[in-house]
From TrEMBL:
It catalyses: carbamoyl phosphate + L-aspartate = N-carbamoyl-L-aspartate + phosphate + H(+). This is Aspartate carbamoyltransferase. The keyword Hydrolase does not apply. InterPro entries: Asp/Orn_carbamoyltranf_P-bd, Asp/Orn_carbamoylTrfase, Asp/Orn_carbamoylTrfase_sf, Asp_carbamoyltransf, Asp_carbamoyltransf_Asp/Orn-bd. Pfam families: OTCace (PF00185), OTCace_N (PF02729). The gene is pyrB. Catalyzes the condensation of carbamoyl phosphate and aspartate to form carbamoyl aspartate and inorganic phosphate, the committed step in the de novo pyrimidine nucleotide biosynthesis pathway. One of its GO terms (molecular function) is amino acid binding. It comes from Saccharothrix espanaensis (strain ATCC 51144 / DSM 44229 / JCM 9112 / NBRC 15066 / NRRL 15764).
């Protein structure tokens, strides 16, 4: 594996290998006072984020450091990008400086693929940490890892993805990955928050959350991405034409305690964060034992360790 750019078309065997490696790494680090492995010693990993991030950026940095890589963070505001340097020139500069892997988040869909094309002769790997409304493959992998811990094999499991599917790269990556692993995915959203062409996706589409909950093994709530709708903060949600108000969205699609009771007892609640409590999810649900939201963050470190391992060390160890 040279890059991780997308889950679309991913080989289930490759995805399972990453998930199995993540589980092995988690087990090997459990109980250790010093969580440090020598696996990527001498390797240089650079994170290049053009959009704000807490969970993804921090977990990639921790993942690299726990595997003894040298991790360098580059932000657009503190680099030559602020002087007008192009993404291509920035990437080539980082590769020339010795980057073994560049982890990129960018507001333009397809940015990570372009980056991989520009760096194809340099030997530098590229990981997509989120590109516009396109994909977020490591988020889907950590979601799958969390579901496997709670539910076991995902084949024939029923998973509902609820909310702002239209603007969600998390939803797209999860649809590709979860269906590749044999799960049955249902998208639940108002018609205004579903993308064009969704009828061609390998999913079931519904607009009625209450009707879908009793048959689900897991519910994944999505963040309402007001900044992509209106260019404003999350509090502006409902001021455009996607839904009337935050309150009406919550009434129709928010996961509250009443709706939690409709789910089977074994069902798991996920959210990629950051959560809009009281709108997308009630605090009592987010903090309940049924929710695996902190487990997602914890598993994100191990999954990203596994991705770096497969990109930078796996072939060498096999040899």
């Amino acid at each position: 594996m040279k890059h991780l750019l997308s889950t679309e078309g991913i080989d289930p065997a490759d995805a399972t290998a990453i998930l199995d490696t993540a589980a092995g790494l988690k087990q090997s680090l459990e109980g250790r006072e010093v969580r440090k492995l020598p696996t990527l010693r001498g390797r240089t990993v650079i994170t290049m984020f053009y959009e704000n991030s807490t969970r993804t950026r921090v977990s990639f940095e921790i993942a690299g450091k726990w595997m003894s890589a040298d991790v360098v963070n580059v932000s657009s505001s503190g680099s030559s990008v602020s002087k007008g340097e192009s993404l291509r020139d920035t990437a080539l500069t980082l590769a020339a400086a010795g980057a073994d892997c560049v982890i990129v988040r960018h507001p333009a869909s397809g940015a990570a693929h372009r980056l991989a094309g520009w760096l194809k002769h340099t030997g530098t790997s590229v990981v997509n940490a989120g590109d516009g409304m396109h994909e977020h493959p490591t988020q889907a992998l950590l979601d799958a890892a969390t579901l496997r811990e709670r539910l076991g094999d995902l084949r024939d499991r029923r998973i509902a993805i609820v909310g702002d599917v239209l603007h969600s790269r998390v939803a797209r990556s999860n649809v590709h990955l979860l269906t590749a692993l044999g799960a049955e995915v249902t998208l639940v959203a108002p018609p205004t928050l579903l993308p064009a062409g969704v009828a061609n996706w390998p999913v079931t589409v519904s607009h009625e959350l209450d009707a879908e909950l009793p048959g689900q093994d897991a519910v994944m709530l999505l963040r309402v991405q007001a900044e992509r709708m209106y260019g404003g903060p999350a509090g502006a949600a409902g001021n455009g034409h996607f839904f009337p108000s935050a309150r009406e969205y919550s009434i129709a699609y928010g996961l509250n305690e009443r709706r939690l009771a409709l789910l089977p007892e074994h069902a798991v609640v996920l959210h990629p964060g950051p959560m809009l409590r009281g709108m997308e999810i009630a605090s009592a649900v987010a903090d309940s034992p049924r929710a695996a939201i902190t487990d997602q963050v914890r598993n994100g470190v191990h999954v990203r360790m596994a991705v770096l391992y497969h990109l930078l060390a796996h072939e060498e160890e096999n040899a």
